[in-house]
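Entry under discussion copied across for reference:
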Amino acid sequence: MEEFLKEYLTILRYEKNLSENTTNSYKNDLKKFLIFLTESKVKDFNDVSATIIAKFFEKQRSSVDSTTSARYMSSIKGFFRFLENNSYIEKNPTDKLSPVKKGRKLPTVLTLPEIEMILNAPKTSDTTGLRDKAILETFYSSGLRVSELINLKINDLFFDDEVIRVLGKGSKERIVPIGSSAVKWVKEYLTRSRPFLEKKTKSQNFVFLNKRGTKLSRMWIWKIFDHYAKEAGIKKEIHPHIFRHSFATHLLEGGADLRAVQEMLGHADISTTQIYTHVDRNYIKQVHKDHHPRG
């Protein structure tokens, strides 16, 4: 069964041209499903029934949310379509399965004082502290995804125009504004810190480098956020996407146009951006409650 999975993932990556991150998501979901099949003594995909798949979802129910369940369903259905289209199975057990209803979860957002506390946490007197300050400022200023920030190159920086060029999902290029504070700290980093991190044969023009002179990993970015959130005494669970959520929400709270925010975030569909208007609505209600004399 593992061989079929390997073939499927190869097709996704190199024929369907999905990103490595997306392919890995499919791989992780389907690996979990294969482990369940092994535990259930199922050794052939022809023996997988709708009932067995339903039992898999029943087992996951207590440990995952509806969004993750919906992703599992999508992964499993796509895999069984591949098996059916290649005549590896006689019939597709997912044909009659109902889609998992995905609840719309509002993103966690930091307040402006919480953002300021995290931004002020790095010690800018040392090489990595200055780098981390520049990273945090860039995240909040431009609302980037982690993959977009770690792949940022020096020739993507157009500081005279206060914009940066970003390669987003599906290799779509977009131009994103970057504020004067982030520009200041990135310039400081490029002058005072990056020359000490750069290794001519390894650095490949990436903006943000680790101590080995190569680009930072996704995991290291998560560690940076976790470290400075703790330094700042923030009790919420902090991850890089929270800065992206906060960037969008704070713009909308300040009166920014929804389509402009959609463009900055690189959302293909405006409905993805609209979730932040729900966060904004909650903010407005809280302002009313806190300040209205009859609130």
